Amino acid sequence: MDAQEELKCPVCVEPFTDPVCLPCGHNFCQTCIRVVWNMDDPKASREGPLFCPECQILLPSDLKLEINSDLQRKVQDVFSKAPSLEGSSHRSRSIIMCDQCIGKTEVAVKSCLTCDASLCSAHTLLHQQREALRGHSLIEVTEDLISFKCKEHGEELKLFCQEDQTTVCCLCIALGAHKNHQAVTLQKACSEFKKVLETNKSLLLQRKHLAESAMKDLEPLFSEVSENAKAYRLRIVEKYNKIKAQIEEDQKLMLAILETEEFYTKKWLRWRNESLECHVKDINAALRSSQSLLEEENDILFLQHLKNNRHGSQVELPLLSVIEQEYSTSDKMKTVEQLVDNLDEVVFHNTQRLWSSLRAVSLDPETAHPELEVSADKLGVHWSKKPTPERKRKTNISSQYSVQAKERFSSGSHYWEVAVWKKPYWLIGLSYASATRDQDSEHLNGDFNNVFCYIYHGNGKYLVCQDSNEKSLAVSKTIQKLGVLVDIPKGAMSFYDGDTLTLLHSFHVKFSGPVCPIFNPCIDINGQNSQPLSIVHLRNKNIS
């Protein structure tokens, strides 16, 4: 007998509630022993001695029942930690009396589906001993016998229809709605489903191990990013100390870029870590649910809960993206050092740094598709699939998963960067907008059809488009940060690798009105594209 069985009342066969200990040493629920002794029945005679239902020893009639506090605490400790399942065999604490007793009624411990009756210990033993009653189906005592019988024929649910995945009676298979369907016994069905659950459990444990291993691999990367930034920072400072005062402004710019790189790399790593934590939580929840089902001993309840919770088939888990190299030496940091080495030539030709035109672009949540979530700082957007009621009521939201920036450009030159990291799908472009926010109309709200220039990344391939003219790009390395330059006076829009400042593609554009940046993180499938698009802002930039 396990520890939990020792903490169950012999009368109701449930965990003790307000247990009392009799002088003979046997424990019972206070309610159960009072029912056995008819103490709450005003018509019952209470003359004569009491007795223990277990050992039948006689007890004084004036016996006082006192709660066994030590046993009660032990019951609470054990069963509060035990896994539970809503609607499982742990029924309510109501007492069910035997239907077969004549005269003094005993507490029922079993229910017979064949007799439609609840049985006390003595009548349960009679069912087990008599040849004519041995074929009866005995289950844990319950008031709800209807749940164990066919609603159409009133017969016991003894079979499992494999075609409709439900419990049925013999008449359902022979004459009813499940006629000619393939059916197996409940025991065989439960055995097969438990095998599936065991396989699922094994898969879940494997996925959990992979997720936890990936999380451990991420831990040293945070310090590695800091160490890399620190090393590059020291080397850059040394180089700048050798250069004249006229390039101090350039030094401040480069340091701001380094700090920005460190910030956004850590931001991405934090997001990756949080995603893995959520993955582990989902796996743990699935494990708990599977374990609770595996512990269910009643076949009918097991199959009913299995169908209700949709655990009867092979578990479908979102694929876990495990990246061998979560972070590589930053190209942007290398670019900073290379630019410093070539500073004399840059200054001589009076070449302006592209990063000096980096704009602080921010997102406009009001233009976001309902299934997109914009971060609180309005610098990031990702697929959420949790539309808010306010956003769902908007009728002017396009079916495309986009969000616009707050900024509108009608003159000058503007550059911004977006961290795309390892996202397999994303789209970044430019759309037309009205000159002021007050003039914005319904066609502005993330309308993909209003995007006249964009770059699209789809699973390693890059595509640029102006109006309806598409063109594939041959990109030698994965773009982790995309740079966008809009030069309205020159009529040009260009896309850059934001780390190496390599030009990817440039369009000649005849701007017909104010334009604004547009961002599309694309739909998430199986958790593979849930990462956010993050707009890059310079950190601690102090340039006059």
Automatic annotation (TrEMBL):
Protein name in the entry: Uncharacterized protein
The keyword Zinc-finger appears for this protein: yes
Pfam families, per database record: SPRY, zf-B_box, zf-RING_UBOX
Positions of the B box-type domain: 150-186
Domain RING-type: 9-56
InterPro entries: B30.2/SPRY, B30.2/SPRY_sf, Butyrophylin_SPRY, ConA-like_dom_sf, E3_ubiq-ligase_TRIM/RNF, SPRY_dom, Znf-RING_euk, Znf_B-box
All residue ranges annotated as the B30.2/SPRY domain in the record: 341-542
GO molecular function: zinc ion binding
Swiss-Prot/TrEMBL keywords: Immunity, Innate immunity, Metal-binding, Zinc, Zinc-finger
SMART domains xref list: BBOX, RING, SPRY
Bilayer-crossing regions: none
